[in-house]
Every structure is written in C-alpha cells, then in structure tokens.
C-alpha cells in the first residue's frame, strides 16, 4: 500500500516496543490492491499494529499521581520530563504520539481512497465493515491528537508532504465535527460482533464507546451520554463478576472487553519487558521499582463508602483493612502471598515465606535487605500473578475500552448536564457493586452511591474512576480534562523513610508502621501527607512539576522547524 505521511517528522521510522503480528505479514503494494475481501482484511489487519495504539499512552500512568519510580519522575530509557516541568517538542512522548497517530491515519486514508475497487466484488456488508474500520481508526487517532495538541493538521486524503505543509493546523473547533462524523460512519458500517478469530477488530459497540469517551473529553456531554447509552442498549456487554480476573493474562475473550488488542507469546507479541520486570517483586526475580504511590493507596474508600480521613473503619497501621476491595486487588496487601512469596516490605522482616519451597528465605522486598526494593513499600497486583515469573513473557491484553468505562462515561456525562436520575446512580453502583462481588441491588452488601446533588455525584464518579481504572493509563487524561493536573501533580511524591534503619527505629519499633497517622483527603479526593512528613514518619521523593502550559503538549520540534509559519507551537513552548 502506498502511504504518504503528513509531515516530514511523521515519515521517520519508529520501532515500536511491540508489534501486532497476529495477522499475515503480506500486504499489497500495487495499484490493483483492495479488490477482494482477502485484500481488504489484510489491509485492515495492519491497522492494529500495537504501536499505533499504545505509543506512548500505555505509559501515561507513570506521569500521574498514581505511581512512583524510586526517587525520580522518570524510568531508565525515558525522557521522563512530563512531570519535570521541562516538556518540549523533542521528547519521545511528544513525537511518538504524533507520529504513530498520523501513520495510522495515513493507512486509513489509503483504505478509504481505494476501497471503491472492491465494489461489486464483495458484499455491501463486507464493504461497509472495512470502510467502517478505517473511519474508526482515523477518528480514534484524531481524538487523541486533538486532546493532547489542540489544533492539528487534518488530512482525510492521501496527499504529498508539500501539500500537507501548506495546510498548517486546523482549528480544533473545525476538527471536532469531522471526528464525530467519522465515528458515526464507523457506527453505521461496523457489525455488532465478529467470530472469535477476529477479536482484534472494532465493532459497532467499540465505535459508540470511543465516540463517547472523545465527547466526554471534549466536554460535549450530551453527545457522550447518548453514545454511551447507545452502547449500553446493544445489550452485548456486561461486567466481569471477578474484577481481579479481568486483567490476568489467562483471561482472553470477555464480555466486559469492548475494544482490546491481544498479545500472544506464540506470535512474540508480549508485554514490554520493563513493565514485567518492574511489576514482579524482587523475591520473584523482578525489580519491583515501578510502584503504586501513597496517593493512590490513600484514595480508596473504606467499606462504609467514606474516605479514610472520615471513616471510623480506617486504621493507618493496617491501611488495607476495611477498604474498597479494588484496593487489595490492585496493590499487594502486606503479609499475603504474591507470586509465590509472602510480601512484607517492613525493615523488621528480613525473611519471608517462600510458598514454593515451604521455607523462609531472605526478603529481597525490604529495603533493609535490598536498597532498590519499593521506595513506597507498595507493589502492583492488578493483573500480576505467578505466571509472570515463569519466564517473564506475558501476553496480557492491551485493554483500550471496557464496559465499566462506558457506564462511568454515561454517568459522568449525565451528571455534568445535571440530568440525574436512577439510571445514573445505577451505572455508578453497577461498577461499585461488582468490586464487592455482589449484584447492584444488594445495597446492604456494599456502600451504594445514593447522593443526588451534582457536586456530590461529580466527586463520587471521579473517585470511582480512580479506584476502578488504576494502572490502566487513564489517570493523567482524567486530571487534565478535569483541570486538576496542576493541583494533583505539583508537589512531592511521599515515600517511606529512605534510610531503612531510621524507618525501623522511628516508625516500626514505635508501633507506627505503616503510616504514622492518617493522611487528610481534600474535596477532590487528593491526599495530603505533609503532617506525616513534618512528624518525621516519611520522606519526600521526587518533586512533580506540571506547568499550566502542559494542558496542551508541544508540537514535535522537527515539524515546527520545517514549517514555523503554518505550524505555530502551543503557548509556552
């Protein structure tokens, strides 16, 4: 296929961390291509190269208040400047998202310009389906570009680089209806479902759900609510009863997964090795260095539905007790088995149980034994189990959209319109009840949301999203669209006392482990650890800096330099 990419910077070859090679490698490269169903399928398969979808947003959790990496805002091999206040157009995240998005847009345009060759050869249903896939992909990529960059160059046809350069940036207000139109064409053309062998392809429900997400991000709440409700009304999706099971690599096709890209060890398409190593505890052969933040641990409500600073059930000495079940399904609870070993980050625990051998062994997950173990004392559990440690090859699905998100998008969009009714409360409570393993009607078994005021429900949904989607690369986007990134991401990470002997003497031996006192939670659900720090119970880690300008990212430097008059950068860069 001939693809003429939009800008010179987009033409640079970028080797994605992972390639989606679950489909035949053959592809057409002649003018006669796109003339049969086989050729259309092969061309469409190339839309789902994993790099087009995960670069770089599968790392965005690292740029939020949900995570920490030792005492820095970066991981080895990353520019790491999203939270350093020095973001610029040469940063990997900036040009990777721009480049990969436009590469997929070019593929979609090529399909749409050539699919007419299949008319009369394939059925109308097949024709509409593959055109729908192209519209879907183009809409999804422009949705991301608009969210992060604002005004963007827009192309809906295959053009030369010089022609594209003359177009410059199209105002966001003019791009929005074009994106909605593409989603609508996808919705009209895509089938409701496929056979199991084609589970990587988007469906009508996926198009409705992604349109709803984009509209929510754009604050088009009426559009978002209608699209989410239409997806719900298909009656094709449901919540997986077991929240923890949903994220395991053994869980493949599932009624909650609306749009995913699968990985496959057999096809050598696996989770990035850095994520695997840092997700595994050190006792199981990992690094355990990319960790949940104290901010995240503090955000989970107690089982009475109250935040930790308001609930009589919260015990700072046992922070996992009496918490929303998603807390211990997302973060490893102390003194429980994880990946074959007891997990105990206390400096008093120099040995732990190896459940495979049945014997105690040296505890590599406490900093008094291994200085590079978790600086927060926390490890990720969501989706991580002993299968990760077998050969550290993991084929966990890359989930882009799931039904819980559709429900919460619907609820939030209705709340923002102040159209609050039973359907809104039910949508939120379905997600919360699932976490407790009960039906939504069993209100005596979980803390159902009952508020009807807009402000109270807005806060409830925002907290619900954080508990539900931790480690799913949505937190940064949520903070940005709620205009809370400046508040949440300016300040310090808080971690355990860096010196493990000092931690032992000043906290553990004084019966103050894990937290010396309860952190306070503000009206936006954000935790304040200043009192613990001032009392000498913890250390400050990296300082996060999120300037106001970063609500929009800079354009890639290379492209701005090529055409400075037509591609002016965003303010502040």
From TrEMBL:
GO terms for cellular component: cell outer membrane. It is found in: Cell outer membrane. Its main location: membrane. Keywords: Cell outer membrane, Membrane, Signal. Residues 280-573 form the RagB/SusD domain. Pfam families: SusD-like_3, SusD_RagB. The keyword Membrane applies. Belongs to the SusD family. This is RagB/SusD family nutrient uptake outer membrane protein. It comes from Bacteroides reticulotermitis. The lineage of its organism: Bacteria, Pseudomonadati, Bacteroidota, Bacteroidia, Bacteroidales.
